[in-house]
Each structure stands twice: as C-alpha cells, then as structure tokens.
Fold:
Amino acid sequence: MDRFCRVWAVLLVLLLAGCARQVPTLYRFADLPARGSCRIALLPLVDKGSYPRGATILSKVLRSELVSSGHFRVVQEGDILDLYRQLLLYPNRQPNQEQLRIIGGRLGIGLFVGGDILEMRQGQAKGGIAPDTDLTMILRIYDGGTGRLLWSTYHRRQGSHYQKVLHFGRINTVTGLARQMAREVIGLWLEEGMEPCAR
Amino acid sequence: MADRAARRPPWPIASVMNRLCLITPVLCLFLAAAAAPAATVAVLPLLDVTVSRNGVNHTLTGFVRREVEQRGFTLVPAGRIMEFLVRHRIRTLGRLDSHLVEAAGRELQADLLLQGTVCQLQEGAAPAISLSLELIRTADAATVWANTDALSASDLTSLLGLEDPENLSDLYGVFFPRLLATMPTRVLPAAGEHAVLDIDSVILLPRHARPGDEISCRVRIRGMEGRIGNLPRLTAWVGDRGHPLELDREGYYLAARWSAADEPGEYTVSLAGRWPSGRTERAVIGSYVVDDHAPDLQLHLVGRELDGRLFFSDRLLIIPTLTDPEPVSRWEVLVIDRDDEVIVRQGAAQELPRRLTWRGQTTLGTLAPDGEYTVVFRVWDRTGLSSSAAQDVSFRRTPPDVAIDLERKEKAVTVKLDRNSGMPLAYWWMKVFAPDGRLLRLAEGVHLPADFTVELPEGAKETPLAALLVAADVLGNRTREKIGDLRSAAAGGEEGEMTLEKEWLEEF
Structure:
C-alpha cells in the first residue's frame, strides 16, 4: 500500500511539473533597476529559426505589445538601427555590453529588450485546415545604463496549446501565436516586479 | 430623512452661480473639443515582409487609409507622402527614426504618422493575414498606439460551415475594422520632450591605446550646417577631465584630441552639451582601453619527447595560448632552420588559432630535410604590443635503415638484422612464407641487432621462400622490405633481391 501511495505521489508531482512548464520561464541574473523600466528599447532579435523574416515579425509584434500594454515608452526602431549603423553593428548580431551602454547613454534608455528566436514554424495547410504553429524564443532584459543582463525568459508554445473545444481557441497564424506569447511574457515581467511608467 | 430635508437651505443665487461657474468651463471644453478639427494622419505605405525585406503593399495600405478615414481623421494625400519618401530617400518602410518622424510632421503638416508592416499574407487553402500598425505622434516621435492582429480563415470557421471565408478578400471585411478598433480617435499633445543630444555620428579612435597615445574624438550634430553659431558647447569628459570640442577645419565635425592616461584600464567618454539657453545634456558616446603590457604568450608543441628533446615525423601540433587571454590583432608563426633561414612563415590578422599543424613542409611546399628547427610564435595585441615564444624541435622523416644479413646453412637460413643509427625502434617483425602461402616463421622484437633461424621445409628444396620485414621507429616512420626468395638471397642470387615496398601488401 505504501509503495502504491509513493508511485501515485511521484506521478502527481510529474503531472503538476508538466503543467507548470506551460508558462514562460524566467531566470533572474540581477534585479531590475528601481524606476528604470519606463523607457524601453527593443533590440533587433537574433533569428536562429527558419521562418522567413521571423525576427522582423516577432520584433514588430513584441514592440506593439509593449506599447499597447500601456506601461512603457518604446524607443523608435529607426533610432536603434541608426545607432547600430553608427557602431558598425549588424542587425542580426547582439551588441556587447559596452555597445549597449553607448546606445543606452545616447537614447536615455532604462531597459533593453532583446532575444533570440530558436524556432518559428508554420506547417502546410491541409484541406482548408490551418497548419499548426510553433514558436520558441528567449527574451532578455538588459540594463540600459550598464548593458548588463538582468532577466532572461524562455517561452515555447504551439498554436494547438490554446485549443479549447473543437477548433475553437486554436491559434492559426504564427503572428497570432507570437502576439499571445509576447503578452504572456510581458504579463509575467509585470507580475515579477517590472515597474511600468508612472501615469 | 425628513428632518435633514427640512434643514437643507433653499437654493440661493450665489450657490446657483457657483455651480454655473463650474459647469460652464466644462461645457466650453467639451464644445471646443467637438469643434476642434480632426487630427491629420500620414499613413505611410505598409512594409510587406512577405514579399521581401523591403517589400511594399499598396493594396493593403489603401484598406488601412479607408479605415482610418472612417474613424474621422484627415488623411495626408498619398502623393505627398510619396514625395516625402523620395525627398528623404527612405528605402525601408516601417521603421522611421525620430528625425524622419518629426520631419514628416513638419513637411506634411501631419499630427500623427501611421506606419505598419504586413507580417503574413497567405492565399490558398487556409488564407490568413496579419498586420502590425503603429501610430506615432510627430511632435515628439512617441508611439501613442500600436496593434498587431492576425486572422486566419480557420478562425472564422463556423460549426455548420455556412458562409465561411474562402479567400483573403473575405477576411478583409472583418480584419481591418478589428485591427483599428482600438485606435484612439484623439491623441493628447506631447507632454514634454526627452532631452537627448542630437548626435548624428561619433568617431572615437583608437579603441585601444598605449599610455600617452593620442585619442581623437569627432562628433557630428544632426543638421549642424544650419546651426553654426547656435551649436551647444560640447565637452568630451573622461573621468573628471574635460576636453572641449571645436569645429574642425572642414567644418564637418566638432573635434577634440587628448593623450591617453598612463594607468591601464577602460575609459568611458561622455559628451556634455551646454546650449546658449543654459540647458545641459550628457550622453555616453564610447570608450577606449589603455593597455601597457604585451600579451603573455605560451607556446606548446605536441610531438614525441625523447631525452628532453622534441621529435616529430608526420605532424607537429603548435598550440599557442595566452596566460591572460585578451583579443589579439594579429599573429605570426615562423619555422627557422639551423642556418637561421626562415623556411615557414604564416600569419593572419585575426584571433589566435586554437592550434596549428606543421607537416614538415616549407612555405614553398617542398618537404624540409631532417634536422633541427626552431618554431617561433609571435602575437600582437590591439595596441600593437607584441610578444613571442620559441621552442626547438627535431624533424625526422627518414624510415629506419635495417641491414639484413642472410647466412645459408644446410637445412636452415640464419637471418641477422642490424641498424646503423636513427631513432629508437618501436617494433620490428619478419615473416617467412612457405610456397603454399603458409606462415613458416615469424620473428619479432623491439631492439636490434637480432638474429633468428628459419628452418627450411623438408622435400621442397628449391621452391622459393618469400619473406617480409617491417620495422618502425618511435616516431612512426616505417620500413618494409620484401625478399622474393630467402634461400637464393642467402646464396646471393638474383631472385632474392630485396625490394622496398611502397604499399602495404600482406598477401604477396
């Protein structure tokens, strides 16, 4: 009986652990600066996936979600790219700490948001049924003053994860999935203590 | 309750006037807002990343324009927007910088600028569309609203499948109103500008300097030509030392020069600007490193060590390492013979290689003779300081020279093996085969000289007995000698001539 109980306990723990993986996973390397989260710069993302222009799409989605959350002032993408040009940086490369410090100093940035797309996929449609979508990303938060890595968030979802009944709830486009995941990550950041702009 | 009502004073004129005074401004504000002209929006052509990195989609731009107009905004004519894009040589849409946004505000008399990107546009079995829009206030280049939406035909599939969308056009009627539903109809004016130095470019050189080296800093302020005489006083600050920037001879940059400090370390340069109005701003513009010591290089050669000396025959691994790792600007490796002649020279202006392999060839591609050589590795750091390390190595490519002495006896042949000089042997073996291919005798060992006897088989007096000798030294150099007929070789006959094998042939 004892053994039986133990097996059930292990199974229950595994089941709960499986459920827990559904949310984005946040790794903290340092605390966010107090009152420094308001003005945010979104760095061009590094695309390690195979979806055409995946980094541009996720970057646009993330930017729009940061703005529409109403909590942050997001620096113009063109201003960041202008400094990339001045610092002779390729947009598909992550700037080093010193370069981030320079960009942050020039634009008066509180936090940088950058990251990698590890996988972005949308299958082929079959018989009028939308294909499944898949996105794996890592989003990182850097200090705007020092360029130091503060937080890193890993998130992986498929469009079918959101399916409720029949086909309802399922996310059928990779952009839709990116938007949903970006919302989840931003929600987690705010929950974990990222300070929004003072209203 | 009745008591409280009884105590309430009747409405005197003063009280009514007070309330009127409060209501009137609110009403005025409301009427003024209602009468205010609608904000002017410049809708830029949409960037279409489904076509290419710089794709444009005029069709969907038309849909967005119509939807924005329906929301009560005044639109800047598309022709004027196109003229603006041409005038400013804007080649990539969807990511205008602040200066272009502000320029659009001025030149197009637009309060707001709407830019967007077509993220997905799929025709076929499962049509889908996704767009990202961004509304920017031109006064301060602040994004005041943004939305991304995506719609797939599968999202609109009903249970009974009645009137389900079949193509992209069927989606537009639902998609565009939904995309712009949250777009604000009125945008608050700019609250206050974020003060930043309007720097166009910075050239800070060198990035790595030795103590006392001259550091040059050149800064260009955006639109400097039109602001001569009204430029801020700029000073480059390194720690607590300020270096004022002056207009250079060409009048293109504001420049300053100073000497790098004696203390090694990283120095951050910030730019402070002071306007005639007294407003001051400060921004980090770069940094440089002062380095006063050469890299500490260690050289490790991987070969065979014998009696404290290093030997190799086939390949020598050269592994350079830095005790205190730092980026290097270039490296060079030399191989010098005993006549001080450089037989190999190789280098590159890049990071230190993890390892190099020398196969005993000169730079010209010929094989170097056996002998003693010195491998020299030199490295330069980013300030140009260099250090080098050297190590001696012996190159031995010649295979062991084994002398075979055969002595014929009545029913046997005595084989005596010896060698003159060279590297110590790793092993040797000799096989003698009967005419039918059977192994007649196997002799093996590690040291020479050695001798052994091969008993001749009974009844096959004059049939040839083939033999194969293999000897290898500790460096891997190998000798293979084949004897066609051991018996006649022992007798000094022609058939027994010994030949050096070039290839491995176990069955001969």
Remarks:
- The beta strands of chain A are 25-28, 39-42, 46-47, 73-74, 111-122, 133-143, 149-158.
- Residues 113 and 141 of chain A are 5 Å apart (CA to CA).
- The domain at 23-191 of chain A is CATH 3.40.50.10610 (Rossmann fold).
- Chain A touches chain B at residues 39, 52-53, 56-57, 60-61, 63-65, 67-68, 73-74, 76-79, 81-82, 86, 98, 101-102, 104-108, 125-131, 166-167, 170, 172-176, 179 (CB under 8 Å).
